[in-house]
Each structure stands twice: as C-alpha cells, then as structure tokens.
Amino acid sequence: MRALIVAAALFAAAPALAQSNASSATLVDASKAPAGRTIIDGAAWRCESATCTATGGASQTAVRACRRVVARLGQVSAFTYKGVALTAEEVAACNA
C-alpha cells in the first residue's frame, strides 16, 4: 500500500518536475529557425516556426544560455532556461 501511495505521489509530481526543466525561446526572425535538432551546450533545441524548445543542457545561468542560443539561432523576444524566465531587460541584454 505504501509503495502505491509513493508511486501515485511521484506520478502526480512528474509534470511539475518536467516543467521546471523546460527551456524555450521565441525567435524574432522565424526564418532563422533550424530545420532539425540543434545542440547548444548540451541542450537539444527543436524549432517549429519561431518557437524553439529544448531538453537537457549544461549547468549555467539563464542569461548565459540565452546568449549562446542567440549566437546560434538569432535574436529572441522571450527566453526561458530550465524553468527560469528572463525579464524583458535581460532579453534585451541577451540580444545586444
């Protein structure tokens, strides 16, 4: 019975845990989106139009990750790395 309760708790918590590791970027110019998977610092980025999402990635700050993505994919209008969303000011600095 105890194992069933623990399993149910882990199953319920799984979406929240997965969400906290989510990374995403909205490209300013969708034409620069790569057709396939692009690996940047260990994160596997996939784009559909201007929206790019990633799994994995090196341990680094969201601002540094943003700069690395901008260097490869172009400017972004929004950026989240492993659940940490950048402010408008941080996105502007990332694009500079």
Could you please describe the fold and organization of this structure?
- The chain has helices at residues 2-20, 62-73, 88-95, and strands at residues 23-27, 38-40, 43-48, 51-56, 76-81, 84-85.
- By secondary structure, it is α+β, with helices and mostly antiparallel strands.
- It has a 6-stranded antiparallel sheet.
- The radius of gyration is 16 Å and the shape is globular.
How would you describe this structure in keywords?
single chain, 96 residues, alpha+beta, 6-stranded antiparallel beta sheet, 6 strands
Per DSSP, the total helix count is 3
Structural class: alpha+beta
Mean pLDDT score: 84
Series of secondary-structure elements, N-terminal to C-terminal: HEEEEHEEH
What kind of oligomer do you see? single chain
Strand content: 25-35%
Annotation, overall tally of beta strands: 6
Point out poorly predicted stretches. Answer: 3-19
Residues in helices, as a percent range: 40-55%
